[in-house]
Design brief:
elongated; 3 helices; 3-stranded antiparallel beta sheet; alpha+beta; 81 residues; single chain; DUF1272
C-alpha cells in the first residue's frame, strides 16, 4: 500500500504537492508543511509521533498511483503549539 500523500497541511491548509518537498508526516500520515512542523517541534499534535520529511513521488509513479485529494484540516489541533 502506498502513502496517501495528502494534499495540504493540517494546520495552515497550505498546498503540499506530492511531487514537491516541504511536507512532513507522522506514522499515521498526518501531514504538515515545514513551517508548521517546525512550530510543532516536529511532533504530531494528533498522536504525539515524530514528524519526518515526506518522500516525493515521481511523476511516472503518480500517474500509476495518484496522491490523495482528500484534505484534512484541523487548525484547532495545532493552536496550542
Amino acid at each position: 500500500m502506498a502513502l496517501e500523500l495528502r494534499p495540504g497541511c493540517e494546520c495552515c491548509d497550505r498546498d503540499l504537492p506530492a511531487d514537491a518537498g516541504g511536507a512532513f508526516i507522522c506514522s499515521f500520515e498526518c501531514t504538515f508543511c515545514a513551517a508548521c512542523a517546525q512550530r510543532l517541534g516536529h511532533r504530531c499534535p494528533n498522536c504525539g509521533g515524530e514528524l519526518l520529511a515526506r518522500p516525493r513521488r515521481p511523476a511516472a509513479a503518480l500517474a500509476r498511483n495518484p496522491a490523495s485529494t482528500t484534505r484534512v484540516w484541523r487548525p484547532a489541533g495545532c493552536a496550542g503549539a
